[in-house]
Write a structure and sequence with these properties.
pyruvate-formate lyase- activating enzyme, single chain, 9-stranded mixed beta sheet, Arc Repressor Mutant, subunit A, globular, 38% helix
Length: 454
């Protein structure tokens, strides 16, 4: 029987290892052009909140880090000056107050997520101050989900204790790899014993969902490193694993120029790293979620996959459709489901606008009806590896019949009447398959806009 490794032919890799969107949103950010005014967006926001009874999610972008992790593609600000904390927290509260004056009714909060950057760059006291002011005079939904991203090297027991007292139960630790040679290459400083201790502390304080982020395709990374990482995972048993493909975009992120492509695994080697990790995770009892997540069967993420409520947004896979998401902070994105708005990415520009009483929006997009339909298909493919269409969409998908036939011949999809299903081999090229049904993508993929598929 042919193995998955044998199916990765050089021709297949050469054809599909092109730059395509990661599809954390649809349309992808470079294709946003239909930006509403701030007043129009306020009306859209209130309309969507009034339609939904679920409540809103809040994402808070905390961009500061003490050192630059050179693999990172996030919007960060590097400093060891912790005097920046209070002014930034003050600005976040000012932005939230702008929303409070805009919203027509008292917000029902169902979710808060602290992302970055390094949220635990901020002192426990400043994070507590932020959360208390965000929650002041609001209603809290039943069983809210409060979570944060954390660096094991700087997160303290006090951080965890005070946040747990405020209702935080989810935490995601950026591990990336346990090999100290790799960590040195990407300028990340943490020890296995720190990770073990902070995981134990989190669980003892009531964090019932612990996620580990790993990245495959890092400089100097080998199959042996993936196997060693799995040994740690088997001992520590995180509830979820995010197993991300390293996105090499040095034209956007200068830190990635600290190493060259010669230091990175080849495309074939990178695929082998993923397959190795995947097989080991499955052997431990994890279930595969989408293209880069794994979770135990009792986890909400896997239950959402089974119940078909799994969705995807700017933070990756989430167990339920996010509804209205309000993004606070520089570069943060708000998402109503039919409209996106993003804040200015430069800290000083964002803070100046907000503290002068103005919105800091820099980019946005109001989705057309056709874009909403495509968004649904992209979400289905990214979450469930299949999608089907109705007779009203027949013409659009009929025009893709030859492309689908080629994908089927290559073993990437299986075609059924008004439906396609992605094979295991095809999962590695799911971004390419989504790009195929994306009418906004030029067939000649533009260079230096997206990361490569592999």
């Amino acid at each position: 029987m042919e193995t998955i490794k044998e199916q990765f032919t050089e021709e297949l890799i050469r054809k599909y290892n092109v730059q395509v969107p990661r599809y954390t949103s649809y349309p992808s950010l470079p294709h946003w052009h239909n930006m509403p005014s701030a007043d129009d967006y306020a009306n859209i926001l209130n309309a969507r909140i009034n339609e939904s009874k679920e409540g809103i999610s809040i994402y808070v972008h905390l961009p500061y880090c003490e050192s630059l992790c050179t693999y990172c593609g996030c919007n960060t600000r590097i400093t060891v000056n912790h005097q920046v904390e209070e002014p930034y927290i003050h600005t976040l509260i000012n932005e939230w107050n702008l929303y409070r004056r805009t919203l027509q009714k008292t917000p029902l909060i169902k979710e808060i997520h602290l992302g970055g950057g390094t949220p635990t760059f901020f002192s426990p006291e400043n994070l507590v101050n932020l959360i208390i002011k965000l929650l002041a005079n609001t209603d809290i939904a039943p069983e809210p989900e409060f979570g944060l991203e954390a660096h094991p090297g700087v997160t303290t027991l006090k951080h965890l204790k005070l946040l747990a007292e405020l209702g935080f139960t989810r935490i995601s630790f950026g591990i990336q790899d346990f090999n100290q040679i790799i960590l040195k290459a990407i300028n990340r400083h943490q020890k296995p014993e720190q990770i073990e201790q902070i995981t134990h502390d989190a669980r003892s304080l009531g964090f019932n969902s612990v996620n580990y982020d790993f990245v495959y395709g890092l400089p100097f990374q080998s199959k042996k490193d993936i196997i060693k990482n799995a040994e740690y995972i088997k001992t520590l048993k995180p509830d979820r694993i995010a197993f991300y493909s390293y996105a090499h975009v040095p034209w956007k992120k200068q830190g990635q120029r600290h190493f060259t492509e010669k230091d990175l695994p080849s495309s074939n080697e990178k695929l082998e790293l993923y397959e190795t990790g995947r097989e080991l995770f499955l052997q431990m009892g994890y279930k595969e979620i989408g293209m880069d997540h794994f979770a135990f069967p009792e986890d909400a993420l896997y239950k959402a996959l089974v119940n078909k409520t799994l969705s995807r947004n700017f933070m990756g896979y989430v167990p339920r459709k996010p509804g209205v998401l309000i993004g606070l902070g520089c570069s943060a994105i708000s998402d109503t489901g039919n409209c996106y708005m993003q804040n200015k990415p430069v800290v000083e520009d964002y803070m100046k606008d907000i503290n002068e009483g103005n919105w800091a929006y820099v980019k946005g997009h109001l989705l057309s009806e056709n874009e909403l339909i495509t968004k649904n298909h992209v979400t289905n493919l990214m979450c469930f590896f299949e999608t089907s269409w109705n007779t009203a969409e027949d013409t659009f998908f009929k025009n893709l019949a030859n492309d689908f036939a080629q994908l089927s011949k290559e073993g990437l999809i299986k075609c059924e009447p008004n439906k396609i299903k992605v094979t295991h081999l095809g999962k590695h090229f799911i971004r390419n398959i989504c790009a195929l049904i994306d009418p906004l993508i030029d067939k000649e993929i533009s260079q230096n806009r997206f990361s490569k598929a592999i």
